């Protein structure tokens, strides 16, 4: 095969991957009404693969959607040592993307509160969220787009189950507690492995997320490893777990605030259709009186 044909096939495969991912983003946006006509979407770009791919998908959707909305990229420079401040501005300007770089020294705050060697991710995330929420109001953004994907959502579900005793995940669309911001996750229908391939195809200037020197969240690392093992043995299980979050039956769980277990009552007033395999013969009994058949309800 000629070199030109090989390059052509590689480019075609990359375009198919990008098209599939953009399709998943479009479906998630429609299913959850993530973006409405006239919205100003603030795409939070950290410099990682997920946020780069999300930004590209949102800009594509902006070009082809029947509604009109704007997209502005925002990066929060948290003043981590060694953070390459030039990379994102250069990328945005080369692509003609509207952007803001905002500065907030959350790194020093985190380091002053978290003992050396402990993971800083949780506090760092809370501080970052507060800064982004307030900036969204400042620029009039009506939606904040974050780069969390299907794997993140499934991992978060199990983290909350294992360590917080809560059946709670990471929703595709969220109203903030103070009701002043709406967070959307356009990559909700996308697997991390597919995002990684698209990011590699595009050769984005990825910025590592470990510049702070923090240890990786060990709980999340264990959950991630556990789910990866399940997925290798049972391909498609991550998708099935995610789809279960879309198909909840409160009466089959145990949360008394979601379903009224107290006032359940039977109703045998109507003639019922027969149950499948309903008849059973009594072979022995200590109950007085003879019956020929017990109907199992």
UniProtKB/TrEMBL annotation:
Query: What is written in the cofactor note of this entry?
Result: Binds 1 [4Fe-4S] cluster per subunit. The cluster is chelated by three Cys residues, the fourth Fe has a free coordination site that may bind a sulfur atom transferred from the persulfide of IscS.
- The signal peptide annotation in the UniProt record is none
* One cellular component term from this protein's GO annotations in UniProt: cytoplasm
* Cofactor field: [4Fe-4S] cluster; Mg(2+)
The UniProt record lists the EC number as 2.8.1.-
| Pathway info | tRNA modification
Lineage top rank: taxon: Bacteria
Q: Does the keyword Ribosomal protein apply?
A: no
Give GO terms: molecular function aspect only.
Answer: 4 iron, 4 sulfur cluster binding; ATP binding; magnesium ion binding; sulfurtransferase activity; tRNA binding
Q: What class of enzyme is it?
A: transferase
Q: Which residues form the tRNA(Ile)-lysidine/2-thiocytidine synthase N-terminal domain?
A: 41-201
Where it sits in the cell: the answer is: Cytoplasm
Matching entries from Pfam families are given as: ATP_bind_3
Family matches, as InterPro entries: Rossmann-like_a/b/a_fold, TilS/TtcA_N, tRNA_Cyd_32_2_STrfase, tRNA_thiolation_TtcA_Ctu1
GO BP, one annotated term: tRNA thio-modification
Q: What is its main location?
A: cytoplasm
Keywords associated with the record:
4Fe-4S, ATP-binding, Cytoplasm, Iron, Iron-sulfur, Magnesium, Metal-binding, Nucleotide-binding, RNA-binding, Transferase, tRNA processing, tRNA-binding
Q: Entry's CDD domains?
A: TtcA-like
Its assembly, as annotated, is: Homodimer.
Q: Which PANTHER family match?
A: AMINOTRAN_5 DOMAIN-CONTAINING PROTEIN, SULFURTRANSFERASE-RELATED
Q: Supply the NCBIfam families for this chain.
A: PRK10696.1 (NF007972)
Q: Which family does it belong to?
A: Belongs to the TtcA family.
Q: What miscellaneous comment appears in this entry?
A: The thiolation reaction likely consists of two steps: a first activation step by ATP to form an adenylated intermediate of the target base of tRNA, and a second nucleophilic substitution step of the sulfur (S) atom supplied by the hydrosulfide attached to the Fe-S cluster.
- Protein name stated in the entry: tRNA-cytidine(32) 2-sulfurtransferase
């Amino acid at each position: 095969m000629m070199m030109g044909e090989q390059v052509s096939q590689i480019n075609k495969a990359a375009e198919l991957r990008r098209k599939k991912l953009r399709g998943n983003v479009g479906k998630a946006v429609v299913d959850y009404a993530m973006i409405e006509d006239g919205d100003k979407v603030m795409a939070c770009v950290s410099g990682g693969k997920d946020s780069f791919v999300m930004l590209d998908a949102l800009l594509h959707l902006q070009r082809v959607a029947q509604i009109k909305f704007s997209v502005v990229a925002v990066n929060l420079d948290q003043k981590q040592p060694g953070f390459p401040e030039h990379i994102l501005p250069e990328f945005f300007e080369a692509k003609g993307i509207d952007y803001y770089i905002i500065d907030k020294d959350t790194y020093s705050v985190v380091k002053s509160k978290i003992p050396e060697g402990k993971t800083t991710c949780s506090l760092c995330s809370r501080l970052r969220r507060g800064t982004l929420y307030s900036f969204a109001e400042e620029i009039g953004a009506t939606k904040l787009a974050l780069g969390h994907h299907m794997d993140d959502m499934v991992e978060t579900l199990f983290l909350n189950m294992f360590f917080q005793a809560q059946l709670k995940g990471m929703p595709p669309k969220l109203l903030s507690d103070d009701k002043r911001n709406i967070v959307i996750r356009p990559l909700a229908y996308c697997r991390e492995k597919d995002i990684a391939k698209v990011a590699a195809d595009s050769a984005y200037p990825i910025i590592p997320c470990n510049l702070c020197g923090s240890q990786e969240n060990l709980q999340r690392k264990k959950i991630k490893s556990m789910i990866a093992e399940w997925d290798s043995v049972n391909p498609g299980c991550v998708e099935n777990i995610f789809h279960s979050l879309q198909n909840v039956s409160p009466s089959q769980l145990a949360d008394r605030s979601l379903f009224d277990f107290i006032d359940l009552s039977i109703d045998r007033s109507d003639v019922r259709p027969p149950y499948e395999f309903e008849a059973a013969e009594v072979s022995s009994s200590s109950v007085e009186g003879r019956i020929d058949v017990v109907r199992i309800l």
